[in-house]
Amino acid sequence: xxxxxxxxxxxxxxxxxxxxxxxxxxxxxxxxxxxxxxxxxxxxxxxxxxxxxxxxxxxxxxxxxxxxxxxxxxxxxxxxxxxxxxxxxxxxxxxxxxxxxxxxxxxxxxxxxxxxxxxxxxxxxxxxxxxxxxxxxxxxxxxxxxxxxxxxxxxxxxxxxxxxxxx
Length: 167
Description:
Layout: H1 2-37, H2 44-65, H3 76-79, H4 85-116, H5 128-147, H6 155-164
Helix pairs in contact: 1-2, 2-5, 4-5
């Protein structure tokens, strides 16, 4: 599993960097066009919207596999103990469940978008494919939330503090 994620990480990161660069360049050109020539880039809003979704949902599986989601460490002192690993497994299951619900909802949105031929406002880009992309990304992230190594964040720091007598 780890080897597969390592093979996918570089290309996904490269794609995310490229999309972010394109979004920045597009925004820069749009602002320049507006301010200097009173001619904004036609469809900039549509393209920015789609690029943002592509970036976020390309990074979601990577972030989930690395257990890099936002964590509040207020209770790590208490929850970092090995006897409480059940808590971290419970959180992983809850996180996976949430991601599966997100995937399911985007799947339903994709079905509806294809059925009604939903398109973006300016450029008429079909929306179904992006909803499917988001559904697959969220579903994969849900699986990765269950498979990722379940160790509390900062657990080694907590143990060092306990061993060092700081706690």
